[in-house]
Amino acid sequence: MANQELFKKVLSHAKEYGFVFQSSEIYDGLSAVYDYGQQGVALKKNLRDYWWKAMVQLNENIVGLDAAILMHPTTWKASGHVDAFNDPLIDNKDSKKRYRADVLVEDYVGKLETKIEKEVKKAAKRFGDAFDKEQFLATNPRVLGYKEKGDAILKRLGKSLENEDLADVKSLIEELEIVCPVSGSKNWTEVKQFNLMFGTKLGASAESATELYLRPETAQGIFVNFLNVQKTGRMKLPFGIAQTGKAFRNEIVARQFIFRMREFEQMEMQFFIPPGTQKEWYAHWKETRLKWHHSLGLGEDNYRFHDHEKLAHYADAACDIEFKFPFGFKELEGIHSRTDFDLSSHEEFSGKKLQYFDPERQENYVPYVLETSIGLDRLFLAVFSHALQEESLEDGSSRTVLRLPAVVAPTKVAVLPLVKKDGLPAIAKTLTEELKWDMTVAYDEKDAVGRRYRRQDALGTPFCITVDHQTVEDQTVTIRYRDTMAQERLTMTEAKAKISKAVSFQNWLGQL
Ligand code: ATP
Question: Is pLDDT at 253 greater than 70 in this prediction?
Fold first, then answer.
């Protein structure tokens, strides 16, 4: 499917099969806010578990936390969010549409990357088996020209943002002759900063109410609890605190479905380390997190690192793991070396010591921090959009199949009696009852079996078990595989064992 077509299909499939709905749809929706339906909530939970098990359960030195969304307002002064959590915005005077100035420039560079991909495809066709992609990318003059241009643009953008030189960001947009996608005009306003935090109030009366913020990231809940966890858990450095939870950002532009939402869920881990060791831990967590992504089997070519040109006020090194979404490579996870910025700043603002006594070094210090931060909704979109495929079959028909990794599929197995008589439903129901203690299972007896298979394909169910007349005689069933559509005759016990293994966390995370 072409990319735009695929993205449209992702949206309609997500709605039609109960994965994602627009929030408050009966009131025409709330922009960039979404609800997860009966299938989506299960996929989301499984993805969260996949992360949690890899980060917390399998690591002796990483523990969990569930901090509140509302925090003392000084937290956000200390973290720098009140002063510096801004995005540069620009308006088009003709369409009256608002954009993120940095995203307009990045999209321009994205188009250069698409041109490179096209050159690669053309050359691959021309040279056939003899094509060496690495060499082509390193030597083709046209490719090198695009790459050089893109790098120079991003470098300049990074520099201007770092120096708060918003006039230069505007000049860059003008020099690149970027037009508004809606009006097609270059009639832009100046670039301005816009704070992304949502404010709210705590307290009964207007006069005594305290101004609060809905947290824009989960990380600060971890920092302010650093000593609580370290002391009560008797944790020794290096150790990590992991947390999943909602975060809120008043995003300027939010047009890419669940990629950029105003209410979303983060899965973050802060790893506390001795100062001076941040380089090695940065390399360690980059590699570990990339491997984790690869373990989901969405194709290693669909991931890449992107080093930050502009470092946030708290970081001494930062990169993103980008995924190839239907609209191009975009950030899925951030890995940041945050130094001792946050803990030191909370020390200063709270007047409380947030230090660690290192028995080996025999000294007190404020630990350094390495952070891994991934958006659960973006992970959902990555997995879902990659999994959704339209497949032409040998008999000339086609099927829609959601090739979700079995470990995160909402339903692991569907049990189907071949017909609704001859005692088959009773056997299938008994089997369903047995299976439900170990995995999510669906029972379906409506329609012809072929149509039921198709429905399970569209929901991403990796296995179907069909109970037929032979089952009555010898306790064997047919197991049908979603991805290959192959069928196999097994005893019920064998089928159960096979599916349990295929969907187990160990089978997937064990390869890490
Ligand atoms: P972007 O540059 O795309 O705005 P960011 O660099 O501001 O993202 P971080 O602050 O590093 O993002 O947040 C960590 C992760 O949280 C991101 O990698 C992303 O997966 C997720 N995330 C951030 N903002 C949103 C959002 N508005 N909607 C959904 N997920 C988000």
Answer: yes
- Residue with the smallest CA separation from ligand 1 atom 23 is 375
For 237, the domain range is 38-69+216-385
| Secondary structure class of 498 (helix, strand, coil) | helix
Domain tally, the chain: 3
Contact 154, 109 (CB under 8 A): yes
CA atoms within 13 A on the CB side of 31: 7
Summarize pLDDT for 84-132 with one digit per residue, the tens. Answer: 888 899 999 999 998 999 999 999 999 999 999 999 999 999 988 889 9
Q: What is the distance in A from the centroid of ligand 1 to the CA of 328?
A: 16
What is the residue whose two structure tokens read 């064997």?
476
Range 226-237 average pLDDT: 96
Residue 71 has pLDDT above 90, yes or no: yes
Q: What is the CATH number of the domain that holds 270?
A: 3.30.930.10
Q: Which atom of ligand 1 is nearest to the CA of 87?
A: 4
Q: What's the DSSP call for residue 504?
A: -
Whether the model pTM is above 0.90 = no
* CB-based contact 288:311 (threshold 8 Å): no
Q: Looking at the structure, tell me whether residues 117 and 189 fall in a common domain.
A: yes
- CA 330 to centroid of ligand 1, rounded, Å: 10
Q: With respect to residue 203, please indicate whether it lies within any of the assigned structural domains.
A: no
Q: What is the whole-number distance in angstroms between the Cα of residue 36 and the centre of ligand 1?
A: 19
Residue identifier of the C-alpha nearest atom 8 of ligand 1: 331
Same domain membership, residue 409 and residue 451? yes
pLDDT-derived band of residue 2, with 50, 70 and 90 as boundaries?
low
Asked whether 502 and 463 are in contact (CB, 8 A), the reply is yes
381 plus 465 within the same structural domain:
no
Q: Which of 378, 379, 381 to mutate to test the pocket of ligand 1 (most atoms within 8 A of CB)?
A: 378
